[in-house]
Specification:
Structural class of chain B: alpha/beta
Radius of gyration of chain A: 28 Å
Strand content of chain A: 15-25%
Distance between the termini of chain B: 84 Å
Largest interface: A-B, 78 and 88 residues
Oligomer: heterodimer
Strand order of the largest sheet of chain B: 9-17-16-18-20-15-21-22
Strand content of chain B: 15-25%
Mean pLDDT of chain A: 90
Low-confidence stretches of chain B: none
Number of strands of chain B: 22
Helix content of chain A: 25-40%
Structural class of chain A: alpha+beta
Low-confidence stretches of chain A: none
Number of strands of chain A: 27
Distance between the termini of chain A: 104 Å
Mean pLDDT of chain B: 91
């Protein structure tokens, strides 16, 4: 081999400053994974400056000295993809936390590596192709029953493909050859994919199917499309985490990837203990069977936090390629941005706004752009919907992370601390939130819910908007000064807020509200509004109209599973009361 | 141990040392001044050419002639059983005139992160005897619940009352208290110590004192020493430990001071960009581990500069901790103790520790209803100021009165008044009973029939 071209894979440390270290005497490319120090801590090359190779280290660097060795693996930071991902709980660089407990006890020490997938476990592979079939990249060779989810084993995206020479079913580990192509290529179930590179697809589709979440304010007023992007910003204490967990539990995606990025340990534990116990409303199996969790709490190494969102979205894309709808929650992208800022400042880079690196906007948009409804290489349709939480400091939405996120995402669920103080949950502000998917989803609602739904939603939004205007007047002159008609509007708006918008995540029934029930509930409120309007034009006073007692039963509908008879009774009672009013 | 006399620069709390053998990051450093005094420091940045040392004490007396000794190990804290009842300096040295701590273990003070998988969910209700906490912002074992206060407010009284009264109903185990003072005045410290001695709490306490006139940089290690001790007591000896850290604002000021001395790019209001991660490495050291007996519960106290809850210190704290108890100046002015404003207060773990099997089945809904009604009444106060009471509807007037009643009876209680959770909930129902029943929309019928005073009287009569 040519001496000059020989790679220098080993170097030595020159400087250590927190999670950022400098090595010399090493050839490296950007984002190569390196082993740092005597303990072989995992790191990644993030800057090259002449002889100086600057590395972010995924573990604590205390005690590491200049002069210790650095080894370049020549690989980029990648995740292991294959059977065994589901039900796993990983840290930011795909080390299974359960395995880490076995290896190093209750606390996360450093210098322990653990593969993302079990390389010993055998999986029952059932071929879907036979010898002589022509396959290309992305094609499904066969399946493995991973949990209640069928794991589709695909030809790796970068494979040239070809004719199958050998393929057979049976028990295999992820490393064993399941298929041989005529050119001699051996295919195993394990795929490695660099986390910072999006997995290829054939085409991206328009988002015209909603992701049903069972949360009334979301499905009803501000829906997100499958393959769409949404942001939940919220000052602390406004119920952001609960909202995200509700989405993870109830959205109609087949696979859930939940990234706890720089969040609280105890809250992660809540997720970790709750998910395995939760029953999937569709299959009756534990929700965990279709979930991958990534937990990198705020006190775990900051560089691993930076990597965690990439690890998560790469896993999501892998399931998307099998034809699944995946929803990915990132809680919180602000912590991710802060990790970028911290590392950038250690690199002594010129800071942009508020100390965040100048490439903040680019990184955020790259990340959200990996969402989408796609035709995979194998022709199957799948989607990755990304729901990112942002935590604006001081609840100030003008800060860079929120602003740069809002420029990209299509749905904004504005959590409001004022509402949560009033125990209005979910505390999503109906005036500031928006969904840009409404137009593209209209057709779906017409077909799947009711042709009356879209006008009904527009009516409800109109009432809420009107209420906001009227409230300003009420603040000044009191509610009695309003015209009769507007007093009824205020009452109807209150009903929409308290009956439709408020939803109790902790109530066994109310926690998930199907679209048909949402329609019935809103329809009932509209029915009251119409009756009230007729009565009022017929001469009834607002006190009479508002004093109808049967409507006070409406909130109870939320907590009843088979609500139809009760609702019907309320509707009848309402009509009867109005009839009686007219008779007098 | 090799001693270097190659100090190149001293700036604020930082000493720059040239041409050393390889020195480890985070290593403990001893600095010997000309008169023989030994000062301690820690490596912040290390390279072949220059090593940056942060000195925990004043840099007075350190010069280019000072000797620098690198100890080859990171900072460790000697811990032992006999620590309970002791008073230590902010740097961990005994200052109560007693003997040195007999170390059973020497632990890294940075403390590794608890593997989220090894954590057990906190769910044991802690009864503090304070209605605004137990009833509406419940504290649970393993939680970190800070008190957000302002200068001149009685947050110390609240913290002491919690330390004094905290218990898990049905359990006889007493809490061990680890108390870390950072930059508080001698007077405040004495107040805490007097109360600890009076109630006998000192015997089951470990106290770390870094007072206002102690070196500011030492404050950056005081909470870590305290938490290392707490973790040892909890996870090695099986105690349930309550850690009180006061005042975190002073800690953050020290952090900013070091950042400025290092000429780092500052973040918001001059605080370092890594303050979130740094605070997380303190606050996250609370919790329970599966299969291990003890627990660490944290009550950090911070004074919000200018009562501004959006200031970076309370803001970042709130993002890490599981809620906050907000002490309010207006209530204090009205003469209400404890002046806890429940509206911005929150306990994120509350739902895990309340309800059937923990407190009582109606707890959550009573709490929600109290909140909602108080919030509504409180909003109406603004309206009354403009239009006068007469312009209000009957309904509005009732909520307005409810708000006053809530502050006067539910919030207000004595410094030594220890209310059981039943008493707190009964009080809540009594107040709710002043509202018409149909206004109680957050409580289902069934519970109303079971607990509403109106029905209970009927049932009894």
């Amino acid at each position: 081999m040519d001496k000059a071209k020989e790679k220098r894979a080993h170097g030595a440390l020159k400087r250590i400053s927190g999670p950022v270290v400098t090595a010399v005497g090493l050839d490296a490319h950007m984002y190569d994974v390196v082993k740092v120090g005597n303990e072989e801590l995992m790191g990644e090359v993030i800057k090259i400056q002449g002889e100086d190779i600057i590395i972010q280290v995924y573990e604590d660097t205390a005690g590491i000295r200049p002069g210790e060795p650095v080894e370049n693996t020549g690989l980029s930071l990648a995740v292991e993809l294959g059977p065994g991902l589901l039900t796993s709980i990983y840290d930011g660089i795909q080390r299974p936390l359960e395995v880490l407990v076995d290896r190093m006890g209750n606390f996360i020490e450093r210098g322990v590596s653990a593969p993302g997938l079990s390389h010993e476990k055998k999986w029952e592979f059932v071929p879907a192709m036979k010898v002589g079939d022509d396959v290309k990249a992305g094609d499904i060779l066969g399946t493995v029953q991973e949990t209640n989810i069928v794991h589709k084993v695909m030809v790796p995206p970068r494979s040239k493909g070809g004719k199958i020479k050998e393929i057979s079913g049976g028990s295999f580990t992820v490393d064993e050859t399941i298929c041989v192509l005529e050119d001699g290529t051996e295919i195993v179930m394990l795929q490695r994919w660099p986390v910072r590179v999006p997995r290829p697809v054939k085409a991206k589709l328009n988002p015209d199917i909603p992701l049903i979440t069972g949360q009334r304010i979301l499905d009803g007023l501000f829906p997100i499309a499958k393959g769409g992007t949404a942001a939940i910003p919220g000052p602390f204490g406004s119920g952001k985490t609960v909202t995200q967990q509700q989405l993870a539990k109830w959205s109609d995606a087949e696979i859930v990837v939940y990234i706890g990025c720089g969040e609280r340990g105890n809250e992660m534990t809540e997720v970790l203990t709750e998910f395995p116990e939760l029953e999937d409303p569709k299959t009756g199996k534990p929700l965990m069977e279709r979930t991958v969790l990534i937990a990198n709490t705020s006190n775990m190494p900051v560089a691993a936090r930076e990597a965690s969102v990439y690890t998560g979205i790469t896993i999501a894309e892998y399931f998307r390629d099998m034809g699944y709808d995946v929803s990915l929650m990132a809680d919180s992208t602000s912590r991710w941005a802060e990790a970028m800022r911290e590392i950038s400042s250690r690199l002594e880079e010129m800071p942009g706004e508020e100390g965040y690196p100048a490439y903040l906007a680019a990184r955020l948009s790259e990340f959200y752009e990996r969402a989408g409804r796609v035709i995979a290489l194998n022709g199957m349709g799948g989607s990755v919907s990304v729901i990112g939480a942002v935590s604006p400091p001081g609840g100030d939405f003008s800060e860079p992370v929120t602003q740069n996120t809002l420029r990209i995402v299509k749905v904004f669920w504005a959590l409001d601390a004022k509402l949560s103080q009033r125990r209005h949950f979910p505390a999503i502000n109906w005036l500031n939130s928006y969904s840009l998917y409404l137009d593209s989803l209209n057709e779906w609602y017409d077909k799947e819910v009711s042709p009356e739904w879209n006008p009904l939603r527009a009516w409800a939004m109109g009432v809420l908007q009107k209420e906001a205007e009227l409230q300003e007047i009420v603040q000044l002159v009191g509610s009695d000064a309003l015209p009769d008609e507007e007093q009824i509007t205020i009452e109807v708006a209150r009903m929409i807020r308290e009956i439709f918008l408020q939803q109790n995540a902790y109530d066994a029934v109310d926690t998930f509200c199907p679209m048909s029930k949402q329609y019935d509930m809103m329809n009932a409120i509209k029915h009251y509004a119409d009756l009230a309007r007729t009565a009022q034009t017929g001469g009834a006073t607002p006190q009479q109209v508002i004093g109808i007692t049967s409507k006070n039963e409406l909130p109870q509908i939320k907590f009843i599973k088979d609500y139809e008879p009760a609702l019907e009774k309320i509707m009848k009672d309402m009509e009867a009361e109005f009839d009686a009013m007219r008779a007098v | 141990m090799k001693e270097y006399r190659t100090v190149a620069q001293i700036a604020g709390p930082l000493v720059f040392v040239e041409k050393t053998e390889p020195v480890g990051y985070s290593e403990l450093v001893n600095i010997v001044t000309a008169d023989g005094t030994v000062k301690r420091g820690q490596v912040l940045d290390t390279s072949d050419e220059i090593v940056v040392v942060q000195v925990f004490e004043t840099t007075a007396g350190i010069g280019r002639d000072s000797g620098i000794r690198f100890t080859g190990e990171t900072i460790k804290m000697p811990v032992g059983k006999d620590m309970l009842g002791r008073i230590l300096s902010g740097g961990g040295k005994p200052i109560d005139g007693g003997p040195d701590i007999v170390p059973e273990k020497r632990l890294e003070i940075t403390g590794a992160a608890i593997n989220p998988y090894a954590r057990a969910p906190p769910e044991d209700f802690i009864q503090t005897g304070i209605s605004t906490i137990d009833g509406t912002n419940t504290l649970v074992r393993g939680q970190k619940l800070p008190i957000f206060s302002g200068s001149g407010l009685p947050h110390n009284d609240v913290a002491l009352q919690i330390a004094r009264q905290a218990k898990v109903p049905g359990s006889t185990e007493e809490f061990a208290v680890v108390f870390a003072a950072m930059g508080i005045t001698r007077e405040e410290a004495n107040y805490f110590m007097a109360d600890f001695e009076k109630t006998g709490a000192l015997e089951r306490s470990v106290v770390f004192l870094n007072l206002a006139d102690d070196p500011a940089v030492e404050r950056t290690i005081t909470p870590r020493l305290a938490l290392t001790t707490a973790e040892y007591l909890a996870f090695d000896l099986g105690y349930h430990v309550l850690v009180i850290l006061t005042d975190m604002t002073n800690y953050c000021e020290a952090l900013r001071q070091i950042g400025a001395a290092r000429e780092e790019v500052p973040g918001r209001r001059g605080y370092p960009g890594y303050m979130y991660t740094d605070l997380a490495s303190i606050y996250e050291r609370a919790g329970i581990i599966k299969g291990v007996k003890g627990s660490v519960t944290q009550i950090p106290i911070l004074t919000m500069p200018g009562d501004d809850i959006t200031h970076p210190i309370p803001d970042l704290t709130g993002y890490i901790t599981e809620g906050q108890i907000v002490v309010n100046r207006e209530l204090h002015r009205k003469g209400i103790y404890p002046p806890i404003n429940v509206l911005p207060s929150l306990s994120r773990l509350m739902n895990l520790g309340i309800g059937e099997g923990h407190t009582r089945e109606d707890h959550k809904k009573v709490s929600d209803q109290l909140y909602a009604a108080y919030a509504e009444g409180n909003d109406l106060r603004g309206l009354v100021a403009i239009v006068g009471k007469d312009a209000l509807s009957e309904r509005d007037r009732m909520f307005l009165e409810f708000a006053d009643l809530f502050e006067d009876r539910f919030v207000r209680q004595g410094l030594y008044e220890d209310r059981s959770i039943e008493e707190t909930l009964e009080l809540g129902w009594d107040l709710l009973a002043t509202l018409p029943e149909e206004q109680l929309v957050r409580i289902d019928r069934e519970l109303i029939h079971k607990y509403h005073p109106k029905y209970r009287k009927k049932a009894q009569g």
